[in-house]
Amino acid sequence: MAVDRLSLTFGALADPTRRAILARLARGGASVTEIAKPFDMSLPAVSKHLKVLERAGLVTRGKEAQWRPAALEARPLKEIDEWVERYRVIWEQRLDRLDEYLKELQVKEKRHGRKG
Amino acid sequence: MAARDNVVEMPIKELVIERVFDAPRERVFDVFTQPEHVEKWWGPKGVSNTVAEFEARPGGKIFIAERALDGATIYIAGVVREIERPSRVLYAIHFADADRKRVAPPAHSGLGDTWDDEIVTLVTFSTEGRRTRMTIRTLSGFTAEWGEKARFGWAESLDKLEHALKL
Fold it and tell me: φ and ψ at B28, to 5 degrees?
């Protein structure tokens, strides 16, 4: 279910290095060595981050023992997107009401002003 | 380090909502941050009654109860992190029970029952002639923090990402 996945996804994304790795993988699959290069990071450090991303389902790894290229998995990100869209609808409705309420206040004030 | 600083291409949609209100900035700000006003507009469509507490100061408590038409009540608790009248307010909320204790989000929220993050919302108010533009940016704690740093520049759509993946 989307449930556990969404928390896992947010958790994995909480680290700036892991977000950087994902951004790199968004440009195409890469080996651990290739990922490590621009970040000035050790290979074990990169592997550790990849494991977290893999657990969150954000990254898939190839099967070849040495090479094991990593690739971005888009589905969990899509779930966040869906949540965002749902939240947007709620906010749009709230703002409709806020707009109406502001207008009510204005009308009340005008009436009050006339009386005074 | 430069490579890291340029990481703005994350393919997650940020929730940004903008609305222009035909009212002065102070008025819109107050209606957004004063509980007696919040009670009047907070609930989305289908909500009959809302009770709100909103302490408009840094560290101030937020507690909102919304009663939906089906009788169910949803409680939201949180804290005001930053507030500057009339230009901005930053606050964090989570789902709660009637005693303000944190609970799992309701099913309809789409967040799932293991969610334990905050929903962080930054609302800014700017003057446009006699009107006021309100901008709401909201996401979970990490994205809000990240978004501030990245200047919200990663709002790439997933379609775009999928396109990139195919290349």
Answer: -65, -40
